[in-house]
Specification:
By secondary structure, the chain is an alpha/beta fold. The chain has one domain (21-150, 206-338): Rossmann fold (3-Layer(aba) Sandwich), CATH 3.40.50. 38% of the residues lie in helices and 24% in strands. It contains 14 helices and 16 strands. It has helices at 11-20, 26-29, 42-45, 47-63, 81-89, 94-99, 109-118, 182-189, 204-220, 266-276, 286-293, 295-302, 308-322, 327-330; strands spanning 8-10, 70-75, 100-105, 125-127, 138-143, 152-156, 160-166, 174-179, 199-202, 222-231, 241-244, 247-249, 259-261, 264-265, 279-285, 331-338. Strands 2, 3, 4, 5, 10, 14, 15 and 16 form an 8-stranded mixed β-sheet that branches. Strands 1, 6, 7, 8 and 9 form a 5-stranded antiparallel β-sheet that branches. A hairpin with a 3-residue loop joins strand 6 and strand 7. Helix 4 crosses helix 5 (81-89). The longest helix has 17 residues, at 47-63. It is globular.
Length: 347
């Protein structure tokens, strides 16, 4: 699809073009990570974040009774920092290393090159889609992946409307709400989306991923770990935003130069997952998750013989990850697995 003057695009179509257009899409043309980029993610803040996720993955593999072969799949690996730490750790766990088939699902060729440069491993397979996975048990890891997927917005006035982008003036795109048949849409997706809601953010692509992943977990065993910023309220909110140069920017301007994102409704995710089958879901804050995994104890060991300035820097970074007023409560962690599985590490 190409953006053309006098065109109407639904919000998710507009976001798709802004972020993923092969020629000018935000994720296709620039490295958005780090101080020189537009935002910083948890793996870049502290290596301890990636170490905690590695501990969780190995522990869950043991819970699955140490399958001789299993798939580890990172959904959207960013600059590859989380996977770099994971790979660097594997030599300490030879049995686990021999069992693990590492996969990365990445859409951006630019980010794929960045990941290949950052991760020192020749055994990683980059996937175009999840259907390339074999039928082994699979552990899916998602850190700030679902918030990058395009969303639709629906607004209830006296009746339901869907939000569109009007492109009469290419330099000044505008929001436009168009009447929408919610009942017909709900019949199509087989999901009562509008119950007790006045505003809805809904990503068809995210729901497609959830359906595909839970189907694989149901058939082959495994689980999904989602780490993302979001909320657990029952009422869905308008959380659409854009970020550029570490500051909030206008979603519509400048076009394709900002990261367009939103906060996940973990209540909506939970309801959708429960409808997909007999799954166990657990949700907590990033603060509680990392603390229960032992991030503070690990920091104490690491900083024992450090210079004071390095020690201060280490704890400053951890504070960003777990402080209630920073990422600690803003980010949530959800774990999805088969109902019979009682694994609760970190929850």
């Amino acid at each position: 699809m190409k953006i053309k003057k006098n065109k109407l695009l639904s919000l998710d179509e507009f976001i798709e073009e802004s972020l993923y257009n092969e020629k000018f899409g935000y994720y296709m043309k620039k490295d958005p990570f780090g101080k020189k980029g537009d935002f910083i993610t948890a793996p870049d803040i502290s290596i301890l974040f990636s170490e905690m996720i590695t501990i969780w993955i190995i522990s869950f593999w043991e819970n699955l009774k140490c399958p001789k072969k299993f798939n580890l799949v990172e959904l959207g690996a960013g600059n590859g920092e989380l996977m770099r730490v994971f790979v660097d750790t594997l030599d300490r766990f030879p049995k686990f290393k021999n069992a693990c088939n590492i996969n990365i699902l990445e859409r951006s060729e630019l980010l794929k090159k960045l990941q290949k440069k950052n991760i020192k491993s020749k055994s990683i397979k980059w996937l175009k889609n999840l259907n390339e996975l074999n039928n082994s048990p699979s552990i899916f890891i998602s850190n700030e992946f679902f918030d990058t997927l395009p969303i639709k917005q629906f607004i209830k006035k006296k009746k339901w409307y869907e939000r569109y982008i009007k492109l009469t003036d290419m330099k000044k795109p505008e929001f436009l709400d168009i009447p929408f048949n919610m009942q017909e849409f709900e019949e199509k997706i087989k999901f009562k989306l509008s119950y007790k809601q006045k505003f809805i953010e809904y990503s068809p692509l995210a729901m497609s991923f959830l359906k595909n992943i839970t189907s694989k977990i149901k058939s082959n065993d495994g689980g999904l770990l989602i780490i993302d910023y979001g909320y657990t309220n029952k009422l869905i909110k308008n959380t659409l935003q854009a970020v550029s140069n570490h500051k909030y920017s206008d979603v519509l301007d400048p076009y394709a130069n900002s990261d367009i994102t939103y906060s996940l409704s973990f209540n909506l995710f939970n309801k959708k997952i429960k409808k997909l089958g007999l799954f166990c879901t657990l949700t907590t804050t990033q603060r509680k998750f990392l603390t229960k995994l032992g991030i503070l104890e690990r920091a104490e060991i690491l900083t024992k013989n450090m210079r004071f300035s390095d020690k201060v820097n280490t704890y400053y970074r951890i504070k960003r990850l777990i402080n209630k007023n920073e990422m600690g409560n803003l980010f949530k962690v959800m774990f999805v697995t088969n109902k019979k599985n009682k694994f609760k590490l970190g929850f």
